[in-house]
Every structure is written in structure tokens, then in C-alpha cells.
Amino acid sequence: MKLFARIGGLLVGLALSTAAMAHAMLDRSTPPVGSSVKVAPGRVELWFSEPLEPAFSTVKVVDAGNRQVDARDAAVDKVDRKHLLVSISSLPPGRYRVVWRVVSVDAHATEGDFTFDVAPQK
Ligand SMILES: [Cu+2]
Predict the structure, then answer these.
(1) Ligand 1 center to 69 CA (angstroms)
(2) Which of 47, 68, 70, 72 has the fewest CB atoms nearer than 10 Å to its CB?
(3) pLDDT tens digit string along 38-50?
(4) What's the pLDDT score for residue 9?
(5) 106 in helix, strand or coil?
(6) How far is the CA of 112 from the centre of ligand 1 (A)?
(7) 16 CA to middle of ligand 1, Å?
(8) Does residue 12 belong to any structural domain of this protein?
């Protein structure tokens, strides 16, 4: 009985660690997390550690007043399903926040946000 309990615990531990590894975490982005860019980007792109479920994965970009400034066309790349992107029209200098929420192909949801700055023109 004691042995079975141990093996059971070990299996649960393995299952949990496998599930945790399969969550889609943000790998990198353009503009990079926390960066300051001189030229306002035409779109924001995010790359994740796992393929995403397109129907449940989205990203938006908001300004300092929490107004959405992207073109509301967030989509997962059909060719590379780890790649999520959204277009933005010209942004004035300021701080912008990228807010993402995705579901990976293992059905686990993850979310997060980061900022980037568009530097004032000189
Ligand atoms: Cu997962």
C-alpha cells in the first residue's frame, strides 16, 4: 500500500511537470519587452514557447489612457502557430501596453502583459 502511494505520487508529479512545460509562455516579441523604439512599429508580434489555439488566443495594445490602439485584427500566424500578431497604425510617442491571453494546444490558458515606449521625436 505504501509503495503504491509512492508510485502514485511520483506519477502525479510527472504529469504536473509535463503539463507545466506545455503551457505557452512568451518567448520574445517585437518591439521587445520593456524596450524603447525610435520608430513607431506597424505591428506587434509575439512568439510563444508552444503552438496556440487560434480561436482562444488574442493580443491587444493600449495607450496610457487604456484606449485600444491596435487595428483589432489579432491573429495567430497560420504557418507558425507559436506566432501571434496584431497591426497598429501610427502611434504618437508614449508608453504602450501589450496585453495577451493565449490558449496552447494542450488547452491551458496563460496571460500576461508588457510595455514598450515610442521615444519622442527629436
Ligand atoms: Cu499547459
Answers:
(1) 30
(2) 72
(3) 999 999 999 999 9
(4) 55
(5) coil
(6) 15
(7) 9
(8) no
